[in-house]
Amino acid sequence: MNAALIFHHGELDCLTLGDVPEPKPAATEAVIAVRAAALNHLDIWVRKGRPGLQLKFPHVLGSDATGTVSAVGDHVQSVKVGDEVILNPGLSCGQCEYCRRGEHSECTAFGIVGLSRAGTFAESVAVPAANLYPKPEHLSIAEAAALPLAYLTAWRMLMTRAKLIAGETVLIHGIGGGVALAALELAKLAGAKVIVTSSSDAKLERAKKLRADHTVNYRGVSDIETAVRDLTGGRGVDIVFDTVGAATWAVNFLVVRKGGRIVLCGVTTGPKAEVNIAALYWNQLTILGSTMGSHEDFRRMLQAVTAAKLHPVVDSVFALGEIKDAMAKMEHGDQFGKIVLNPHAVADTRHHTSHHRQPREQIPELVA
């Protein structure tokens, strides 16, 4: 079967479309025929490599997927052949103290599909059956593929870690990425006021259409702190939602209110930054790290998305063979929403869309 592979770490030129054996399920696993798979920034650093990262090459990238169950292991009862499912890509042992108390993303052996085992950028993938959930019926195939990692991460950050309360104000850095856009939708669903930032006026205008209350172009203001303080009556925001890392770290301490929370899940601009310890203790701030989420986080997120009929923002859909183009777009930061791969499309069927909901007439092969 076809799969997007790397044979070594490197830049875009190390990506290739190759043939790999069809996966077979272990006793507690299921195989899904992948109908769509979404890109994440995780795919970039898995491709480039990190200190301590050890992969078995060739390695198949990809964490998010939706598809149809095509085979199940001997001990699997939770899903059956023919089920339409989406994948929770978080992997845990199920036995350690953290898993036993339901904190699967704190597992001592925590991993992610596409990092710890072969990924979803393929025509089929074998995964733990316990990680498969019914696909929400209101979502198209592309939207379903865009949901898991981004929405799970945003849900845990806002609801589980930062404990967002209706009426609070949330600042989201760098609107346009999948996790940031998921946070915008979930925060509005929870009754929050949301301020978003970007260097792109076009992205900010689109964020307004997704119900962002205020927007700040950080290239268009001399002082982000003043802009945010002005928007909050001098008080500051209750929660800073940060997927950026080093570039926004100092700003976080300037814009959050006394007793506020800063929650972080990513370091796309670097992993190291200085901490203003005086501001931390004097203003009684809470700093929260967050990674993916538990099975309970995933279940609750799915319930909320289904009940509210939320739709992940899909930027564009590429054929699997266009993985280099798709990943280049993500690395350049050109997207607004998730970039999705269709394993069964050929190169000339690519659709460069950029909208909130995929029109059925434009991408018929990825509509539920």
Which CATH class of the largest domain? Alpha Beta
What is the beta-strand fraction?
15-25%
**Helical segment count:** 11
Query: What is the subunit organization of this protein?
Result: single chain
What is the CATH-assigned architecture of the largest domain? Alpha-Beta Complex
Low-confidence parts = 349-365
Write structural notes for this entry.
- With 368 residues, the protein is α/β, with parallel strands linked by helices.
- The protein folds into 2 domains: 2-147 and 313-366, Medium-chain alcohol dehydrogenases, catalytic domain (Quinone Oxidoreductase, Chain A, domain 1, Alpha-Beta Complex); 151-289, NAD(P)-binding Rossmann-like Domain (Rossmann fold).
- Helix content is 27%, strand content 24%.
- The protein is built from 11 helices and 18 strands.
- It has helices at residues 41-48, 97-100, 141-146, 148-161, 178-189, 201-209, 224-231, 246-255, 277-282, 295-308, 323-332, and strands at 2-6, 15-19, 29-38, 59-60, 66-72, 84-87, 90-91, 111-112, 124-128, 132-134, 169-172, 193-198, 214-217, 237-242, 256-264, 286-289, 314-319, 338-342.
- Strands 3, 5, 6, 9, 10, 17 and 18 form a 7-stranded mixed β-sheet that branches.
- Residues 349-365 have low confidence and may be disordered.
Element layout with pairings:
Elements: E1 2-6, E2 15-19, E3 29-38, H1 41-48, E4 59-60, E5 66-72, E6 84-87, E7 90-91, H2 97-100, E8 111-112, E9 124-128, E10 132-134, H3 141-146, H4 148-161, E11 169-172, H5 178-189, E12 193-198, H6 201-209, E13 214-217, H7 224-231, E14 237-242, H8 246-255, E15 256-264, H9 277-282, E16 286-289, H10 295-308, E17 314-319, H11 323-332, E18 338-342
Parallel strand pairs: 11-12, 11-14, 12-13, 14-15, 15-16, 17-18
Antiparallel strand pairs: 1-2, 1-4, 3-5, 3-9, 3-18, 5-6, 6-10, 7-8
